Amino acid sequence: MTWRIVPREEKFFELFDLQASHGYEAARIFKELVAGWNLDSPHFERLRDIEHEADIATHEIIDKLNRTFVTPFDREDIHELAGETDSIIDLIHSLSSRMQVYRVEKTTPELIEMADILSQAADNVRKAVAYLRQYENAERRILDYCIEINRLENAGDRLLLAALGKLFQKTGDTLEIVKWKEIYEVAEMAIDKCEHVANIIEGIVVKQG
Hints:
This protein is mainly α. It has helices at residues 11-35, 43-67, 75-101, 109-130, 135-168, 174-208. The radius of gyration is 19 Å and the shape is globular. The longest helix is centred in the last third of the chain and has 35 residues, at 174-208. The chain has one domain (11-208): Phosphate transport system protein phou homolog 2, domain 2 (Methane Monooxygenase Hydroxylase, Chain G, domain 1), CATH 1.20.58.
């Protein structure tokens, strides 16, 4: 029998792929939820399930990090990548839950567009993460995905400002204004998290280059 002194580390990439896929799935389902808004939608439960599954994956990454001597790249980058990817999912789940608790009656064109931007950003995160296991031969492709995420984040920023400007032009129900301000800002925070993940990935590629 052959005993391994150094634990295998290949599973890190499998877990990163799984976590990034959870992020994209959450963003995709949220986009569907917003487009066909229904307070009784089964998408709420699915988002709760994804959030739980993502927490398990994050725990596995951190546990593996604590038990592995040789890691594919810097330990702090692994920890940060796992945490920030999980934060995308946490924000999406939190946002959908708040909208349900607030009993939002209908969505807005601005939120539908923000959900689309978020879905695109999460998809590019998923694609960039998938190439990390072969970053030596895929540096340009990874960086292209990161650049696209940055572009989408800028589009999200502009849309947030436009949505808030339109919101504050309204008069009447102050509580509704407060609710929607929070909804828009949390949606943009989720898009921002995608950019944070892109920045971590860029840092990993530069360090390994």
